[in-house]
Amino acid sequence: MRDSFDPSASEIETTTAEEGKTRKRPRPGERRLQILQVLAEMLQNPKGERVTTAALAAKIQVSEAALYRHFASKAQMFEGLISFIEQTVFGLINQINQKEESGLAQARGILQMLLFFAEKNPGMTRVLLGDALLQEDDRLQERITQVLDRVETSLKQALRIAQTQGGTWANVSQDEVSIRAAMLMSYVLGRWHRFARSGFKKLPTEASDISLRILLSE
């Protein structure tokens, strides 16, 4: 399951000459991926400090000008991270929906996946919460809000399926389904905030089975 960037995917090969080791030119797209990987790693700083392009360039050991050969702006780098989140999260939601026929099982799977994704990708959690996007381009906040709205819609769709499958959920109104979906999303956001505020020590998945059983009960 593609939960996080694989550092090995962007390793730069080196060759040893008589003068010592020399770095080969990165393959197409390799440096771009490396920049996004290192940015995500730097966002894992428990202090939540803002990442500057100067610090990012220093971490990669390239010039700031080299960064801008791959990304037109810092905002575009964050857009790359948001695209990764979007593709991964909705790819996993599709897998869950294809695997599970039960609407409640779909909702539970989506919620568990969101908690697990944050736990495995602390830096991405700060992007999802918008913390890492403060003082950046406003459109980034709008973009991540759209992603979260789509996730809530996916939860709502799963609960609507549960309505049609009989049992106690058959008596739940459409308005209540929307309220429930919003409540579940608030639970996830709360877990993410708790994780980030604790310096990534209080894991989002802690006792999540019990929490989800209560939240999805009727």
UniProtKB/TrEMBL annotation:
<feature type="DNA-binding region" description="H-T-H motif">
    <location>
        <begin position="52"/>
        <end position="71"/>
    </location>
</feature>
<dbReference type="InterPro" id="IPR054580">
    <property type="entry name" value="SlmA-like_C"/>
</dbReference>
<dbReference type="Pfam" id="PF22276">
    <property type="entry name" value="SlmA-like_C"/>
</dbReference>
<dbReference type="InterPro" id="IPR050624">
    <property type="entry name" value="HTH-type_Tx_Regulator"/>
</dbReference>
<dbReference type="InterPro" id="IPR001647">
    <property type="entry name" value="HTH_TetR"/>
</dbReference>
<protein>
    <submittedName>
        <fullName>Transcriptional regulator</fullName>
    </submittedName>
</protein>
<dbReference type="InterPro" id="IPR009057">
    <property type="entry name" value="Homeodomain-like_sf"/>
</dbReference>
<dbReference type="InterPro" id="IPR036271">
    <property type="entry name" value="Tet_transcr_reg_TetR-rel_C_sf"/>
</dbReference>
<feature type="compositionally biased region" description="Low complexity">
    <location>
        <begin position="8"/>
        <end position="17"/>
    </location>
</feature>
<dbReference type="GO" id="GO:0003677">
    <property type="term" value="F:DNA binding"/>
</dbReference>
<keyword id="KW-0238">DNA-binding</keyword>
<feature type="domain" description="HTH tetR-type">
    <location>
        <begin position="29"/>
        <end position="89"/>
    </location>
</feature>
<feature type="region of interest" description="Disordered">
    <location>
        <begin position="1"/>
        <end position="29"/>
    </location>
</feature>
<dbReference type="Pfam" id="PF00440">
    <property type="entry name" value="TetR_N"/>
</dbReference>
